[in-house]
Structure to design on (414 residues):
DNA sequence: CTCGCATAAGTAAGTGCTTACTTACCGAAG
DNA sequence: CTTCGGTAAGTAAGCACTTACTTATGCGAG
């Protein structure tokens, strides 16, 4: 196997294990074993454990999706924003964030760990992600408030609400995968439901 | 210092460190040092690390508040439920959950870690907490739907939304305490804001 | 009051195992 | 014969947990 190939295999195994056990919890021995090489090989490809973690975050599927979200290329989202179709906007936003969990990087788990563990890199990663979401969604909410379409709620509080729903949903589905005790809700249904709740609330429309 | 006193001191230090670094991340050496005794003393008071963790969860301020929530004694909540004052109900629920963070046990952090770490005890703890919340709040929502006061949204989805807001809010405030980068929102304001969003949504009332 | 002694509170210095990381070496391809 | 992908066998430090031992604290009998 060539160097580049091996590197990718190691990264893939590392992502899996870091997102499962966190930075501290995942061991280099495990990662090496999971990628089918000796620990020594791992340390030839990556200077140390930190460098390995950094490489994951710098990875296309992670940092880029954390900061850019590929939102720029989401036609459904662009169309929804242009048409001021709020339900579609929030649905697309939620869905694309949630689906990252399913993609090559178990994004949400990595994100939650990075918020808890005291690791500079991880913390910066979390902050960048959250800030970016606040900017994007918060900006949209503020705009719609100016339009008179949204009530005057602190945009940041609304973002915190939406992001919280999504994070908690991911957390629950992760746990569901492990134990099957909790309720499984599909990402699609959750994204739709959260968008609906966020926009219309629980109160029945007054006649 | 008497045995019981010492035990309490150790528990206090352990709570602090477990909630900061997680179960794996906190070391018995650190915990012993933080409580001003040798490691050997720690292991005289608690059979092993697991037993120490278990003792914390069994603690009044933790398991009981996780499963009972002291909601039975919250007069403001009981009154709000009786009067079907939904805004007050959700505000009280949110506020009491959030305030646990401030109390003797940094509840939310412990909860988040327990959701991520692969530790039977921790997982059970998280499940119990979440199930209990789903039952209580979900039950209330279902009832209000029957009253015709709430729209037909899956109760569990609504609970997931509310709990998610609260968890994420705690996570942000934790990180704020550490870095000061994120927006600090008081628990009171957050609980009020989330209750409002959950009930009324963002959409401006249609004329 | 105090002596004797059991018991609880405490420690220093380990145990064996795991951790991140290293060194010294090997075989094949260019 | 060097360079690259690879390994076996380390190392020092850190982990949960123990051992062997010392001090403090009751507390009933004399």
């Amino acid at each position: 196997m060539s160097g580049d190939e091996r590197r990718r295999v190691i990264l893939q195994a590392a992502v899996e294990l870091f997102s499962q056990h966190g930075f501290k919890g995942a061991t280099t021995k495990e990662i090496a074993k999971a990628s089918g090489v000796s620990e020594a090989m791992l340390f030839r490809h990556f200077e140390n454990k930190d460098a390995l973690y950094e490489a994951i975050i710098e990875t296309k599927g992670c940092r880029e999706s954390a900061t850019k979200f590929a939102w720029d290329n989401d036609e459904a989202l662009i169309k929804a924003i242009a048409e001021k179709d709020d339900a579609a906007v929030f649905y697309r936003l939620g869905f694309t964030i949630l689906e990252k969990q399913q993609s090559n990087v178990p994004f949400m788990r990595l994100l939650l760990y990075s918020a808890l563990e005291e690791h500079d890199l991880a913390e910066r990663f979390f902050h960048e992600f959250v800030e970016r979401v606040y900017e994007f969604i918060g900006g949209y909410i503020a705009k719609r408030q100016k339009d008179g379409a949204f009530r005057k709620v602190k945009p940041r509080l609304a973002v915190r609400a939406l992001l919280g729903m999504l994070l908690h949903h991911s957390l629950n589905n992760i746990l569901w995968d492990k134990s099957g005790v909790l309720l499984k809700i599909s990402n699609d249904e959750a994204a739709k439901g959260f968008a609906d709740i966020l926009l219309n609330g629980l109160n029945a429309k007054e006649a």
About this structure: Chain B has two domains: 3-58, 62-200. The mean pLDDT of chain B is 85.
